[in-house]
Design a protein that fits this description.
- By secondary structure, the chain is an alpha/beta fold.
- It has helices at 21-24, 50-59, 71-79, 99-110, 125-140, 144-157, 168-172, 209-223, 240-253, 267-273, and strands at residues 8-13, 28-31, 34-37, 40-43, 65-67, 86-91, 115-119, 159-163, 189-196, 199-207, 230-236, 258-264, 278-284.
- The strands form 3 sheets. The protein has a 6-stranded mixed β-sheet with strand order 10-9-8-13-11-12, sandwiched between helices. Strands 2-1-6-7 form a 4-stranded parallel β-sheet, sandwiched between helices. A 3-stranded antiparallel β-sheet has the order 4-3-5, with helices on one face.
- Helix 3 packs across helix 4.
- The chain starts with 7 loop residues before the first strand and ends with a strand.
Amino acid sequence: MRLSAETTAVVLDSTADLPDPAARHPNWRLVPLYVRFGDETLRDHVDLTAAEFYERLRVTSVPPATSQPTPGDFQEAFEALAEFERIVCITVSAKLSGTFESARLAAEAIGGDKVLLVDSASASAGIVILAESIQRRLALGTSDGEIESAAERFRREADLRFTVDTLDYLVRGGRIGKAAGLVGQLLNVKPILTIREGEVEPVKRVRGRAKAFAEFEQALVSGSEDDPSWHLAVAHADAQADADRIVATIERVRPNATLDLVTTLGPVVGTHGGPGTLGLFWFREAT
């Protein structure tokens, strides 16, 4: 089957931190995860915006928790896309969340082979970079095999750097991964982290925010080229000034690269990163 943007829907989970995917592309849809404050459960980016979440986080005495969509949530979303012949569902890393498994169960439940599942092995803006890559292929006409090959190359070659103000949120949410060895070692030190093979991994430690910015720039310069085929994105957790600084760095050192997205981490990703988290993503589109 030849796939196009007219015949194929793209479903993202809300950890992509794109609150209204259909406004970006008419064939894109959102399935939200959940964030809980005590007994109150809210849909990520639907019932609770990023701004509302960080405002609430400052004053709450109840630490938030998160949960994946149910298979029923995905099934409802898939069944609502009856006008499309094919659905490409792109999820957060399966090593960070059970979201991919919920989507898999939903795809099984509706039967047939309508849904093509893609584990991004990434999170937040990284998912959007991959989705945009797939959308460009759909615009030209593509196939399942070409999409799967593109996703595999993304998982292998895409890169990112992110830093957090504290590892407490990653520890509390169980997403610390291979960075666990840094816990208790961060007095005035900023961890520089990445996601490799779908899980959080430490890169290095630097002292102070200024050196963290310098590390981001060095990693971008050494890991990319100044060409439109390089697609970049920035994500932050209630740290707009820091995001603006990263964007200014991109404009200075990679003025010809393509900046796909600047976004605020939503309630679910923000629960695990914590306020002050800052991330820079990059990937070269095959030509």
